[in-house]
Amino acid sequence: MSIHDMSRPALHHDLPQIAIACINDDILHEIFLQLAANSLFPCGTTIREGTSWISISYVCRYWRAISLVSAQLWSCFYLTERSNVAMVKEFLRRSRQAMLHVTFSGPTRSLHPTDHLVRMAQMLSAHTERIMEFELFNLYPRETDAILSSFTSPAPHLQKLVIRSIAVAYHHTLFGGSMPLLREISLAGVATSWLPYKNLTMLTIFHQEAPSMADLLWTLVNCPAVEELLVGFFTMSEVVVHHPEPELTIALHRLKRLTITSRPDHVLSILAHLSFPPTTAVSLTFSGIPHSAENIFRYSRRCPSLSAIAANVQHAVLEERFGACLRSADSRISLKWQWGREPSDPLYTGFAATLFPALQHLSVDYACTTDQWTHILSHLPTLVSIAVHAPARDMTALFDALGQVPRQDLVRGILCPVLACVSVSQLDAFWSGEYIFERVVACFLNRAAAAYRLASFQMPFRTEIIFPPALLEELAAVVDKVEVQDAFHKLLRIR
Q: Measured between alpha carbons, how far is residue 256 from residues 29, 181, 332 in Å?
């Protein structure tokens, strides 16, 4: 019996003629489906409280009849340690042959596998051929592995697979390695064997042992409609390191988000094979030490799509995000890296391999050494303004770098030759030391002496700190316009 076969008059003649009673059966059924699909209540735990979607089947005889006749309505399983095994069995019976949407959610109160969660997984595994969506969230590795171990049979109708474990769980093969209709996969916290994925629209895989370059490229070639490509690898095959000059370019015309986390040479060698729209949001994280620093510069200029995005960035932010992060103000492009023992270490060159030829404005909320600032700013020659938003004790190195005078034995000239405006905010008590003001003034004295005079310098104070008058006079002599305000917004000097 289906919804359309139901006889409304037989079940509905005694209902009051109110608006809800006049709703078409199909619409009422769709409302029920939406309630079930968006329910976050474990199966069989909240009926008595009236908070489960199942409570709609107790409103009246007609609503109950619609609920019971719909197999699709009972096909959504949201399972936690509070779920009722008997209710899961009843859901399976009422769902008949409908496609299933299965979600296991934690965390649980124990680090060890919960027996009835595993039992429910085993019950559902007998219906693997009906599973359309499978999700697992916030469970510990042992629980994750115990549940996944129940699903060894092929999943011929699975379209969406999402697994996010609390810590890294190792599981060799998912659903027997056979998921021919899979369109969306998101794995984080579970390391599994790489499969020959095809026709995906979303590929999100982190904390993985990476495939060979050949396997990865095969997947990308066979996923031309992918919209989200987010991958993070522990290590990568040596095939990548010794890969010849890239010839294959994979056009991903629908790509909206691209995230790659790996060693610098690995990240850039993958990019060398990709072509994507200028509207793609790109996030690159350079982690670990590359196998070969030469590979970085071999591949760094071979991704025109990335270069096109970077070429349009005019305003960027340098901030702390578990390391250094340089991102565009609209977050369309983001580069993250960590420093090695020396600024020139290959670990850093992942950042150095990406150019921002039109960058004019930089906001700074990150502390570096003078050498590190020198390396960063040497790749940003078009900067017109710098806005500093960090305590002075962290920023003095920036002014030391900007004030370096070119030497004849160095090919590099002065940093940021077109720099015109500098502003400093979020000052703290560490600015009370006169040596800090001395370093700021020395920076702009050196630049003026080298014919790179600053047009504007702004510094508002939040505390009762006073810019030493003598140093302020020196600063005003080499900067066209100086604006310094005290904590009461009193303008101390303007020129």
A: 35, 22, 10
Q: In whole angstroms, give the CA distance from residue 299 to residue 77.
A: 47
Contact 455, 423 (CB under 8 A): no
Give the separation between CA 79 and CA 442, rounded to whole angstroms: 65
Q: Is the dihedral of CA 392, 397, 399, 400 positive or negative?
A: positive
pLDDT tier at 460, thresholds 50, 70, 90: confident
From 468, 455, 465, select the one nearest 486 (Cα to Cα).
465
Residue 91 near residue 83, CB atoms below 8 Å: no
Q: What dihedral do alpha carbons 186, 187, 189, 190 form, nearest 10°?
A: 160
Q: What is the pLDDT of residues 4-60, one digit of tens each?
A: 555 444 444 455 566 666 777 788 888 887 877 776 555 544 443 334 677 777 778
Distance from C-alpha of 287 to C-alpha of 231, rounded to nearest angstrom? 13
- What is the DSSP-derived secondary structure letter of residue 255? -
The pTM score is 0.82
Q: Do residues 433 and 443 make contact, with C-beta atoms less than 8 angstroms apart?
A: no
User: Measured between alpha carbons, how far is 332 from 309 in angstroms, rounded to an integer?
Assistant: 8
Residue 300 CA from chain centroid, whole number: 22
CA-based nearest residue to 56, from 73, 40, 72? 73
Q: Where are the alpha helices (H) located in 41-105, listed in sequence order?
A: 61-69, 85-95
The set of residues, in sequence order, having a beta carbon less than 8 Å from that of 432 and lying 6+ positions away, is 465
Contact status, residue 174 vs residue 136, Cβ threshold 8 Å: no
Helix (H, G, I), strand (E, B) or coil at 492: strand
Of 276, 236, 242, 237, the closest CA to residue 259 belongs to 276
Cα–Cα distance measured from residue 299 to residue 245, given in angstroms and rounded to the nearest whole number: 8
CB-based contacts of 366, cutoff 8 Å, min separation 6 = 318, 319, 320, 324, 325, 390
Greatest mean pLDDT among 3-12, 220-229, 293-302 lies in 220-229
Segment 350-373, tens digit of pLDDT: 555 567 889 999 999 888 888 888
CA distances from 146 to 86, 110, 116 (A): 20, 14, 11
CA distance 299 to 459: 42
Q: Computed over its alpha carbons, how large is the radius of gyration of the chain? A: 30
Over the chain, what is the mean pLDDT?
80
pLDDT of residue 18: 66
- Cis peptide bond upstream of 107, omega within 30: yes
The residues facing 335 across adjacent strands are 284, 326
